[in-house]
Structure formats: C-alpha cells, structure tokens
Amino acid sequence: MSLSPDTLHPSLAPNFLRERLMAAGLRATQQRLLILECLLVLPGHPTAEQVHRQAVEQAPSLSLGTVYKTLDSFVAAGLTKRVASAEGSSRRYDADCTEHHHLFCTNTQEIIDYCDPQLDALIRDFFAAKGLSDFQPHSFSLHITGNKVLKD
Questions:
Q1: I need a labelling partner for 16 at 20 to 30 A (CA). Which of 42, 90, 127, 128 fits?
Q2: How far apart are CA 79 and CA 71, in angstroms?
Q3: Is CATH 3.30.1490.190 what the domain over 101-146 is classified as, yes or no?
Q4: How far, in Å, are 76, 111, 146 from residue 86 at the CA level?
Q5: Looking at domain 14-94, which CATH architecture does it have?
Q6: What are the start and end residues of each CATH 3.30.1490.190 domain in the chain?
Q7: Strands 111-114 and 101-105, bridge-based pairing
C-alpha cells in the first residue's frame, strides 16, 4: 500500500493526517492514514463498509475487518465518534468530535449534524436543576428522528 502526497485528497496534507493520529496517541501507519483520509473525505457519516470501499481503491488487500478495528481504535482514542444509524442496523462514524446533535431522516436514512447553543444551554440547565446526585454529565448528543420536509 502506497500513501504518497499524490494519493491523498488535495485538501488533506499528509502532515495534517499524521498530526491528528499522533495527537490521539496513535502511530501513523499507512493503513491508519488511509482510513482516516477516507473517513474525512466521505460525505456525511460513513459506515465502515463505505470507508472500506473507498480505501480498497488505493489498497486492494485491505480487509473490512482491519477497517472496523481501525475505526474502533479511532473511537477509543477520541479521534472519531460512533453514531447509531437511523435504522439502527449499521454503525456510522463521525469525524466531527465537537459537541453537536444528529437529526435522522427516516425517508433518506441521512444523518444531519445540528448545532444549537440555545438547545445545549437548555439541556445543561435542565440537568443542573434536576440535581442528579449520582450522575454528572460531561457531554451529550441529542438524536432526533423525523423526516425532511420538501419545500415547493
């Protein structure tokens, strides 16, 4: 498997990928670099299968199991998040680890990122008012299921 600057997506410099892996405490192997690149360039919240299909174009011998293990190591290191799909049958991955919520469209199976500081404040205030003595939330992600409304 060859991962040269020529094979990387133009918007991703090799040092950027390497630095992200190293900041997460992971060695920057060629497989990890390739899988991270694929995760970052694929639209939306890709499945491991989608990452694998993209990656095998550059590394035909890369197994789906290796992609799953690598993505799981990314999750454990805080480099990505695992997101349940709207239908619940497949794991999806989100390279955006900032606080945000997800809207699940049951018609398209699309997962849409949603940020709203006012909603975040409401949720924090709600838990602060409840005074849960045996639980202290440090982060949260709201998952809302619905349908996109098409406008005429």
A1: 90
A2: 9
A3: yes
A4: 22, 7, 9
A5: Orthogonal Bundle (1.10)
A6: 101-146
A7: antiparallel
